[in-house]
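Continuing from the previous page of notes. For each protein in this section, the sequence appears first, followed by its structure tokens. Read the first protein now.
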Amino acid sequence: MYDASDLARLQFIRGLRDDAGFSLAQIGQLLEDEAARERGRERLRQTSDPAERRVYLTEAQERVERQIALLEEKAARLATMIDEAQVRLARIHGRLAELDGKPSAHPIRPSKRAAVAKARP
């Protein structure tokens, strides 16, 4: 009933939803952007008019910039979640060390991803 490309698309959608935590609206936007990218590529191949090519490339640039913003937002949220989990883990390690009569040996360390995400404009 489905061909290999249909199955790959469904697996991609499921991965975005389940693994990456994208909403259905975000997935829909990413899929529409991908379809528009394919249409734009075909239109670029069919014209040599610089004005038309500029329009198509500007549209593509806007789509990619939107995708980057969405992905960076998702990465920043994930980095924050990782940092919060690391703080909880450091507290647990500290409490375990106290039970053993030792000073806490696990300082709280923000993730590298959080630093990268926070450094981006």
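Done with the first. The second protein uses the same format. Note its length before scrolling.
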Amino acid sequence: MATLLKVRGLTLSIRIGLLALAALLLSGCLTYRLTEFTDQIRKADQLSVDELKRVQFYTSHTLIFTAVSETRESPPPEPRRKPKLDTRYVDQVKIRRHTPGVVITAGDRWLDVSFEEGKWLRFTQKPSGRYLLDAKTVTYGGKLYRVECVPRRFSECPVSLRIRKSLKPKIKVRSQKVKGRQP
């Protein structure tokens, strides 16, 4: 009986180990292999505005935009009720790390990247060649927002654009064997 328990315990530990190994391998396959998009990449691949529109961009960090608007509600007409307190509404937009986006317009030193229909952010080129969102406030969808970067404060965390490591399209080869002809 004791031998049976050891065998079962061993197989259980092996099963747990294999499960952990499979989870680790699967998570490694799912991670993004991204590199920072720079002006050097743009020049090396000679990307026009039309070609930039076909490149998939990603954010380097999570962004949180916060817009605060205050509204005051009048007290109720009945004197026995407590007056309502001022109500404060907070509008928040979150763009998670590695959210896909596309270029909608571009200039020599800037890119307007859209992460959802009708809204975009402007990333400007810095002397290092990186394209960064380095504003403390942005207009997003016609509203003014304060910008925070997660996990750190924005001043320590400039948000950059990222792309897949290779911009070259994948080539799929379709081969056909020719049998030849006879007279």
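What the second structure shows: Residues 33-74+83-164 form one domain. Confidence is low (pLDDT under 50) at residues 27-31. We return to this in next week's lecture.
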